[in-house]
């Protein structure tokens, strides 16, 4: 006659007191860890916020139009970003070192605009140092057309300006004179002055001699910062208006 034995097993991972005693005595191997499924972690969706918009070019922003249909703030931001990039491509470009008169100083130097950097050479005809520096500035003006290079007869800008201070360079931005350099020593002297040396000195004072890519990036960053500030202020103002309306309703 066949004998049947019934074996009862508890939930997975559960042990009896006897088994625990045997394991302590070394008569049974260690209990196998209970398998548990890994915690579910959904893949994070790409967040298309203001920071995402800043890193896109015009083509990418146009292709992403559908992603912004449900967010008026970001859609407006996207449209403004496109306009700003297009405006950056059409911003003023100079390309030569223009001779100006004293009565043009305020218009063309002081009030050139907050986004325009001006390099002004105070010179005298026949002065050897002025001639060497002007040759370098003419080359740099053609190479870096986003910077406004100008020259003016020293005594036309400042009456009785001494020859001992020539050549003199002035750097203006946003109505302010930010730097001035007197003489040739800044550029290594008359024997060592080169366009590259002058460009290095100018770049130590500001973004004056940048490559086309560097200049484009600088202009875009400045425009983006201004745009973000305006958009953030606008959104914050809208939030305050909503809070005021909610307070009125509660009252």
CATH superfamily of the domain at 98-212: Glutaredoxin
Helix/strand/pairing class, anyone?
alpha/beta
Task: Please give the count of helices.
Answer: 9
CATH class of the domain at 98-212: Alpha Beta
Helix content: 40-55%
> In CATH terms, what is the architecture of the domain at 98-212?
3-Layer(aba) Sandwich
Rg to the nearest angstrom? 35 Å
Strand-and-helix sequence, N→C?
HHHHEHEHEHEEHH
What gross morphology would you assign? Answer: elongated
Q: What number is the mean pLDDT?
A: 79
| Main beta-sheet annotation | 5 strands, mixed
> What's the N-to-C terminus distance?
89 Å
Provide an overview of this structure.
- This is Phosducin domain-containing protein.
- InterPro entries: Phosducin-like_chap/apop_reg, Phosducin_thioredoxin-like_dom, Thioredoxin-like_sf.
- Residues 67-184 form the Phosducin domain.
- One of its GO terms (cellular component) is cytoplasm.
- One of its GO terms (biological process) is protein folding.
- The chain is α/β, with parallel strands linked by helices and 251 residues long.
- It has a domain at 98-212: Glutaredoxin, CATH 3.40.30.10.
- Helix content is 45%, strand content 12%.
- The chain contains 9 helices and 5 strands, in the order ααααβαβαβαββαα.
- It has helices spanning 17-24, 50-54, 58-63, 72-89, 105-110, 128-143, 154-157, 195-205, 212-250; strands at residues 97-99, 117-123, 148-153, 168-173, 176-182.
- It has a 5-stranded mixed beta sheet.
- Strand 2, helix 6 and strand 3 (148-153) form a beta-alpha-beta unit.
- Helix 4 runs antiparallel to helix 9 (212-250) and helix 6 (128-143) packs across helix 8.
- It is elongated, with a radius of gyration of 35 Å.
- It starts with 16 loop residues before the first helix and ends with a helix.
- The mean pLDDT is 79.
């Amino acid at each position: 006659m066949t004998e049947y034995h019934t074996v009862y097993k508890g939930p997975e991972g559960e042990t009896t007191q006897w088994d625990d005693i045997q394991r302590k005595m070394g008569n049974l191997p260690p209990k196998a860890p209970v398998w548990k499924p890994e915690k579910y972690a959904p893949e994070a969706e790409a967040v298309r916020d203001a920071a995402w918009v800043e890193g896109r070019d015009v083509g990418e922003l146009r292709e992403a139009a559908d992603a912004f249909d449900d967010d008026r703030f970001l859609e407006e931001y996207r449209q403004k970003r496109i306009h700003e990039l297009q405006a950056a491509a059409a911003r003023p470009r100079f390309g030569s070192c223009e001779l100006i008169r004293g009565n043009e100083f305020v218009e063309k130097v002081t009030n050139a605009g907050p986004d325009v950097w001006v390099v002004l050479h105070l010179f005298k005809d026949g002065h050897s140092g002025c001639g060497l520096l002007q040759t370098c500035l003419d080359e740099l003006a053609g190479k870096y057309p986003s910077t406004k290079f100008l020259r003016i007869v020293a005594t036309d800008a400042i009456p009785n300006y001494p020859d001992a201070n020539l050549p003199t360079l002035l750097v203006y931005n946003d109505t302010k004179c930010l730097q001035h350099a007197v003489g040739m020593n800044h550029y290594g002297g008359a024997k060592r002055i080169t366009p590259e040396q002058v460009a290095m000195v100018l770049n130590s004072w500001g973004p004056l001699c940048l490559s086309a890519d560097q200049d484009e990036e600088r202009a875009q960053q400045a425009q983006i910062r201004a745009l973000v500030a305006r958009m953030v202020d606008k959104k914050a103002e809208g939030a305050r208006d909503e809070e005021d309306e909610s307070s009125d309703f509660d009252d």
